Amino acid sequence: MTVVESPAVRLTVDGRAITAAPGQLLIAACEQAGVYIPHFCYHPRMRSVGMCRMCLVEVDTGRGPALQPSCMLPVSEGMVVETASDAAARAQDGVLEFLLLNHPLDCPVCDKGGECPLQDQTMAYGPGESRFTEEKRHFAKPIPISDLILLDRERCILCDRCTRFADEVAGEPLIGFQDRGSHTQVNTFPEAPFDSYFSGNTVQICPVGALTARPYRFKARPWDISETISTYPNAMGDRVSVHASRNQILRLQGVDSEAVNHGWLSDRDRFSFEAVHSPNRLREPMLRDESSGEMQAVSWSSALSLAAAAIREAVDAHGASSVAILGGAGLCAEDQYAWVKLVKGIVGTDNVDARMGDGLWADLLCALPRASVADACHPGGAVLLISGDLREEFGTLYLRLRHALLNDDVALVELTPLETSLSSLASVSLRARPGDTALLTEAMLSPQRGESVAGVPTKALAAVASMLKRRPLTVLLGRTSLAESPAAVERAAILLARKFPQARFLPLLRRGGTVGALDVGMAPGLLPGRVTLASASDWYRSAWGAAPEARGLGTEEVLQAAAAGKIKTLVLLGADPVVDFPYSRLASEGLSAVSTLISVDLFNTASVRRADIVLPAAGFGEREGTHVNVEGRATAVTAQVTPPGVARRDWQIAAELARLLGGDLGISSPRDAWEELARLSPLHSGASWEALRTDLDGVLLQAPPPADGEPLRPEALRLADLEPPEAAVVPFDGYSFRLVADRTVYDGGTVVGNCPSLAAKARPGRLRLNVADYERLGVGGDGAVVVTSSAGSLVATAKPDDRVPPAVAALAQNTAGGDPRLLLSPGDAVCEVRIEAASLT
Amino acid sequence: MARLSEANVRLALEIIGRYPRPRSALIPVLHIAQAQDGYVSSDAMRHVAELVGTTPSEVLSTCSFYEMFKRSRPGAYQLNICRGISCFLRGADDLIERATERLGIPLGGTAPHCPVSLEAVECVAACTEAPCAQVNYRYFGPLGASELDELIDGLEAGRLAELPPHGVLSTVLQSPSPDRLAGPSMPEDSGPPAWWERRQERETGKEAG
Question: Helices A486-499 and A437-445 meet at what angle, rounded to 10?
Fold first, then answer.
């Protein structure tokens, strides 16, 4: 496709000739040219509404100068604009006087004071004095519009930003203007709070102090705050500004990065800073007392030397393969690299896995052509979603994709077991019964006969096939549910990649830096730079002095080996397999059977409570480094506060252990680690430490073509070498239900649990059933049901839900409403369950 | 109070069917709710939101924008005194003050002793009868102090029973023939409007001529 570049529009602003893109709004064109026009309602990521009238400027398009709102006016050729003429200044002054008529001027007690656009612009453009002596309009002072957000309607200037955000961006118009004229107010419907996963964004974009968030109210003054731009360690790597004062993180604000989050954050992430200062943080190294079994605080030197001794003893007595390291997804890339180098280069084991058994085939993810979020949102493209509900797991990606579907002619095809939050915007929704993902992908790629395949009409499959012929394809590839074997998704991915060589894939793995961890080789058989042991072990052996000989074990195999007594020393890097690993019994058995369990973590999790040696680590806001998101985009992570107690950075722990094991990592700062990684891994070579700290969008990791005279570098993984795994198709019997173990934002996870504001939002999960199924089962008034699978059974509360298709039962993981992992058994393609109404006895 | 009755739901669905987007039928469906109960209750707003596929918050935004949608139960008689410019010049202020005193209620209130709600309203397009008032949207005027007293006496004594209830503004329900309905097609999917095509023809004709 050839892109026709429209010629730039030329116009004159304050006597200066500037150019702008055709169709660009005047206010944006001026801003780009360095001319700031004051405004309140205009927001570059939302539709203009011209509500506040603050951006009035004098515009002459050949008919003489006239005042026009620059946020509603696209640029045109030859336009002459005066932003600071007498007429414009008088208009702005007058608008401010109007806006201040009912504004309470309670700035001394207002959280916004000091960073308030209304305050700033009144000082810069306003009258300074009001002629209004009458009584101002009064409303009840702040009313809660949700658990997190408070609204002070007296301060509101009716700019429509929060209401537009709720409607346009989040798609949840739960707040709106009520009444009319001078009585207009923003409010919710009675007893229908603004319970959006994204409500915190309205506080950030409010140009006055009308909306405030509970976690920040009356905590600080803007002039006492220091801020740095950092990256939130979630899968998208949302850019954030971390605001801290007196060694306390006080709030996070989204930073408008064009490539990543467009300034938005989900509430789950925005308010998660509370966990940083949680009293449950680990503050000092601890050791299990052999006689009493109690944990006792010890010094770093004794904890580290005991940990090193445990590793050395295991290696000496049983070989390096008796040591394993699980986790590391939450670490910065530098920490991950330091640990990979320690484990693979010095200890010599390949039993490393950043995934917690809920990921996908690491080699495949490294081999698939990687998509960026921008690829997925590119106008005219098609997006195939094979995953759970994006809104529950990947908040800002959901917002980006939703925007693209509504505005940029992107077509969405869903291949998901349940209806998702994007279903109403999807071109085609294929409801794949758990286990049928690969089958339906195959059916989609070749013409089908008959009425339907696996319950999906052939017509829908044909519609998808014809759409994919016309539109470039981006696949969002994640686990549809823990209860469906990953092989189904992996097979689907390979089939798609073979059929559409131009297709790109965005791997959607939970837990922050999992995908970035695979890029630094935090999986068995991989080494830094998306290369395999087979192709790159010589390369790294020459750099590190040693590299594993044979492919090691993944998380599930490690736990199995541990249960069988073959793993002697197990290190958990911020991992909590007891809660996160899909097969809880196996996790438990594995952890119990190892001789020494070493846990490096931030919190006292269920797995940490079983550890023999606990090493406290620094977390978000306390460490410096680089985060790599699902696109393979590296962005800077900065430190704002000191870790609690004597907690250390993960790379420091790795470097100390290396020294005690008689090696030397050669790393004495995160920068050392990144630069060594960039030197050794062609994938990381394009991202210099400085560039990561200057570019808001970071650097998309990509191996440059080899230069002349460059030493032969390890060969990258090739998709052609990977065989699609067999995905067993379990015949559907019509008697049992297929289980979907999905995710919810506010679950019983460590971060949510340690943030008082978020923990209050966690609800026990319900066993969601199709309405017809629910009625057929004759569930009693309390909804109690017994769910039984071949692996176990649990009691849950059933709830009818029209987003669930017939013969499917959905239960979220990690909530107080029942643990679906009790029903899963390793190796099963699907989880079939029987559901019975619990008898009232 | 109540959600829409079964018959009203049928009527609402029929009206919704006339629009390309269900949400476009919001105002006519709110009228049905008001006709049913005399006002639009919170339950009715929730029900309307379900019917037209939006949130109760959006229904409330629309409903509260229009003064003639009542959100609490008014008296059987809605007394509206005009305060438009003509009525104002001819003493509407005095009438309004007198009415509040006679009924013992502020503007927007409902009298405790008789079923009358009082409001001052913008121009009701009856300037020839200024100063004037409406009871259940039927005109009375021009009113002096004594005529107003007489009107209020009549309301208090229930002598104006022949006035229709105020909930019913649209006395005639339209039933357009099926061939005139826009149907469920989306505006952006349809071709250019007829007037545009006529204009194009005219312009090309002009050029040719």
Answer: 20
SS3 content of chain A, % helix, strand, coil (to 5): 30, 20, 45
User: How many domains are there within chain A?
Assistant: 5
A523-544: per-residue pLDDT in tens?
999 999 999 999 999 999 999 9
Cβ contact A189–B67 (<8 Å): no
Residue A191 located in a structural domain? yes
Asked if the Cβ–Cβ distance from B61 to A176 is below 8 Å, we say: yes
Q: Which ipTM value was assigned to this complex?
A: 0.88
State the DSSP string of B30-48: HHHHHHHHSS--HHHHHHH
What is the extent of the structural domain holding A27?
9-98
One domain, residues A497 and A541 = no
What is the structure's pLDDT at B20?
86
Q: Does the pLDDT value for residue A669 go beyond 60? A: yes
Same domain, A499 and A518: no
For range A560-579, the mean pLDDT:
96
CATH of the domain at A478: 3.40.228.10
- Chain B contacts of A192, Cβ < 8 Å? 55-57
Query: Is the pLDDT at A2 greater than 50, yes or no?
Result: no
Residue A3 near residue A14 (C-beta atoms within 8 A): no
Whether residue A16 is found in the same domain as residue A149: no
Which domain-ending residue is among A508, A530, A556? Answer: A508
Q: What DSSP assignment string belongs to A547-597?
A: --SS----HHHHHHHHHTT---EEEEES--HHHHSS-HHHHHHHHHHSSEE
> Both A578 and A483 in a single domain?
no
Q: What is the pLDDT at residue B137? A: 85
Nearest CA in chain B to A189: B57
User: What chain B residue is nearest to A181 in terms of C-alpha separation?
Assistant: B65
| Contact: B65, A180; criterion CB under 8 Å | yes
* Whether residue A666 sits in one domain with residue A541: yes
Which residues of chain B approach chain A closer than 8 Å at the C-beta? 42, 45-46, 54-61, 64-67
A 10 A CB-CB count for A812 gives: 25
Q: Residues B101-150: pLDDT tens digits?
A: 999 999 989 888 878 999 999 999 999 999 999 998 889 989 999 999 99
- Is A43 in the same domain as A147? no
Question: What is this structure's pTM?
Answer: 0.93
Last residue of a domain, one of A277, A297, A313: A277
SS3 of A468-516: the string is HHHCCEEEEEECCCCCCCHHHHHHHHHHHHHHCCCCEEEEECCCCCHHH
Which residues lie below 8 Å from residue A776, measured CB to CB, with a gap of 6+? Answer: none
Name which of B43, B50, B57 to mutate to probe chain A: the one with the most chain A Cβ atoms within 10 A of its Cβ. B57
Which pLDDT score is estimated for B172? 62
Q: Is the dihedral of CA B36, B42, B43, B48 positive or negative?
A: positive
Q: Are A351 and A464 contained in the same domain?
A: no
Cβ-nearest to A189 among B57, B66, B67? B57
Tell me the pLDDT of chain A averaged across its residues.
94
A175 shares its domain with A264: yes
Residues of A with CB under 8 A from a CB of B: 172-180, 188-190, 192
